[in-house]
Specification:
The chain is mostly beta strands. A hairpin with a 2-residue loop joins strand 1 and strand 2. The N and C termini lie far apart (71 Å). Bound molecules: beta-D-fructofuranose.
Amino acid sequence: MKKLFSLILLAVFFITAGAHQSNDMKIISVGENQSLLRIHANENYLLFPVEESIDDSKIELLVNGKVEKVFYVRLANNKVDYYVPFDLIPYKGENLTFRVTTPKMHQPVRRSKRDSEHKELWIKRISLSDKFDKLNREQYRPVYHHTPSYGWMNDPNGMFYKDGEWHLYFQWNPYGSRWQNMTWGHSSSPDLVNWTQHDAAIEPNDLGTIFSGSAAIDRYNTAGFGTDAVVAMYTSAGDYQMQSLAFSHDNGMSFENYSDNPVITLPTEARDPNFFYNEKTGLWNLVLAHALEKEILIFSSPDLKQWKLESSFGKGLGAREGVWECPDLFELPVEGTDEKKWVMIVNLNPGGPFGGSATQYFVGDFDGKTFIPDTTPGGFVPTKWLDYGKDYYATVTWSDAPDNRRVGIAWMSNWQYADEVPTMQYRSANSLPRDLGLFRGKDGQIYVSSKPVKELLKLRRQPLSSLKNISVGKNGTSIELPDDGVCEITMNAIVKKSPLFLSLKNDAGEVVTIAYDPKSSTLSLDRTQSGVTDFSENFPAVTIAPTHETSGKLNLRIFIDKSSVEIFDADGKYSMTNLVFPSLPYTKLEITSDGSNTRIENLVVYPLRNQNN
Ligand code: FRU
C-alpha cells in the first residue's frame, strides 16, 4: 500500500513538473500529444499562439466533464506568427478545462524536472489577458472595404437590411487566418461603407460547423418565430451537408437554432441555401447548390420548415469545370423598359474565366417553380460573368433592401491562393457593395450591371489632381495619387484608334497596367509586375473584360484601396476586381497611348477616407 502511494506521488511529481503553472493557469500533460489546460477565467481572453504553417491542434472545452465546444487552432510549435483570442467574458469567474490534442509532428512534452526548455512553444506562450489588439495596422488592410478585425473570412452570408442597418455575415474563422471553424461572423453598417464588427452570430453546434446561407425578415410570421423575426438558413457541415434554420429577435445580433433542425437533408453534397419571400405566389422560394451535380435545386415552402423540391436548374448549362456554390435568385427591371427579368447567380470554383473562382449568372423567367433561362437566337444559353477580375467570388445580395435596391457583395479573393496572400492578423476583404441592375446589350442579350453603391461618394475628399481636355501620345502624361495610394479615379476619354494605357506606379518600380484596346473593345489589367506576386503561381495574371462599347468612349471609375483595384464602367456595364500587393503604395498614374488620336476629356483623383481615418 505504502509502495503504491509513493508510486502515485512520483507520477504526480513528473506530470506536474512538465506543466506550465501560474495562479490562473495550469497545463498538465496527460499523454504523448494531449494536455489539459486548466484556467480560472479572471481575465477577458485566453490568447492562443498560432504558427500558420503547421497542422491544427484540436481544442475541446470541457464543462462538467462534457465537451461544450470544439475548435481547431494551429498551436505554435517552432515560432509564433500571431495570437488569437478565446473570449472568456461569458465564463468570467469560472474554472475551465480545455483538452488540447496536438498533431503528431509536435514535439511532445518531456516529463522531467528540467524540461522547461523542451516544452512545446504554445505552452510557453499561451496567456490570459484583458486585452486583445484588434488595431487596423497591417500594410495591406483596406481602408474602406469590409474586413474582419482578425481571423480568416470567405463568403458573405445572410445579408439583410432592417431598421436603417445593413447586416453582413460572413464565413469566419475566429481562431486563425486560414479556413477552419466555420462560424457566421457579423458586421453592420448604416451606409454600406463604415462597418462595425459584432460578436459571432452563429457558432458551430452538434450538427456541424456553419457554412454559407441567407437570411430574411419573416414579415407574416409564417415560421411562427414571431412577426418580423429575422430568419437565417445555413448549411450544417457535419458528416453530411444539411440545411438548418436559426432565428433572431434582436435584429440579427444573436440567433437561436431551430429545435427541429435540419429542415432539408439530401443524400449528396448540397449547400448554401438562399431563400426569399415570393409575393406573387405567397410562398417562400429557396435555391440550393447541388454542388457536385452542378445544378441548382429550387424549393418552395409556406413556413420555411417544410420544403418541397419544385425543379432543378442548370444541368449541362453554363461554366461547369468546378463545383457550383452560393446561388442567388432575384427579379430586376430592365433599364429603360417596363420589362422585368429574373437573375440566377451561380458561383463556380474552379472554372472562372481567368482560373479559379468566379461568379456566373443567367437571366431568365421564374414562376415560383421553374427558372427558364434566356437563349441566344440560336437557342444557346450563354454563360455571363458578373465581374472580369480574378478576385470576385461567392457574390450574393441583401434581402429586404430599401428603395427596391438589389445590392450585392463578393468575397474579394480566389480559392486558388486565398490562404497564401501576404496578410497575417486577418485574411480577406469583401468587394465594394454594388447596386445591381439589368440592361440590354448591343447583342440583344440582357446583362447585369454593377455600380458601386452611391454611399461611396461620401468617402471622397477634395480632388488631389485632375486633367482636362488633353491629348495623350507615346510620351504621355503623369499625375499624382495620394501618398497612401487610397483613392478613386474617374475618367472620361475618347479612344478611337490606338490603345490607351493607365499605369499605376510606385517608388519601388512596381506597376499595374490598365489598357483599353479600341479595336477589340476590351479593357485589361496586368498585375504581373504589381508587387508581391510570388506567393502563388496563380497570382500573376492579366484579366480582360469586353466593354459593350464600340463608340470609342471610355468612361471609368477606378477604386484603389491598399491591396485591391476595382474598375467599373461608369454605367456599370462591366467591372473588374483584382487584388494587388505593392511593396509601397502606388503614388503615380501614368497615361500613355500608342497613337495621337487619344483624348482625356476629364480625369479626377479623389482621395478616399472613411470615418475611422
Ligand atoms: C464557397 C464555399 C461554400 C461553403 C463555404 C464554406 O466559397 O465553399 O460552398 O458553404 O465556402 O466555408
